[in-house]
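Researcher: I'd like a structural prediction for the single chain below. Treat it as a standalone chain; there are no partners to consider.
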Amino acid sequence: MTGAGPGGPAAPFDRAAVRRHRDRAAARVDQVADLLGELAERLLDRLDDTTQRFTAALDLGGRGVVAPLLAARGIGCVSCDLSAPMVARNPRPVVVADEEFLPFAPGSFDLVVASLSLHWINDLPGTLIQLRHALRPGGLLLASLPALGTLGGLRMALTRAEVAVSGGAAPRVAPFPDLSDCAALLQRAGYALPVADVEDVGFSYANPMTLVAELRAAGETNALAERDRRIPPRGLFAAGFADAAGADGRVSVRLRLAVLTGWAPG
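Model: Treating it as a single chain, here is the predicted structure.
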């Protein structure tokens, strides 16, 4: 989650691939809009814990579901996304911008909402600092992202299957931060009263290829820089899903949703 510097580690994510995946997903994200909306609602419920009234929000990567939820709360917003087709799903005003190089002036917003949109960023501390600068003094950052443990069982099952099929394993699931790392990131980025907690959301699939289709529809296809770009070995997913299946034949997966809140000092 840190960018590459001179002599430093290579960036873990292929940002051009992230953009392509979101471009393609824009045409079919409606397939998972209800799920994305439910997860965004869980995040926005945190607004009920404060008496502060927000009027100018930044919706970062909301995929067309966050802006209407903010409007229903009477909060105006600007929507921003790396993908032009994806951000066009939102009511205006919209901005196409890379989350690692945000174009907003200091003090532009009193609320930033990033619902499941920060986990493909190479320099996450840098983006969090930029978002803090974009907040007015006393403004709130509200963000969610997958935490360590998300898709853990499926990751191990696919790794075992690929080792058995081809003798080695390529990275197919992105690394996720530990919850304690999330709180430290907020503190490092200069937020006041940083809090990171977790919600566990479970899913069960009779046909695990439905999970693959949902990830594609959400723009969550593998964008690791070191991913294997070849066609997966024949039978890999069938073997991996069979390994991951329970006694009832269903594949159960877990989303560990890290919820981050932090205030701009002032």
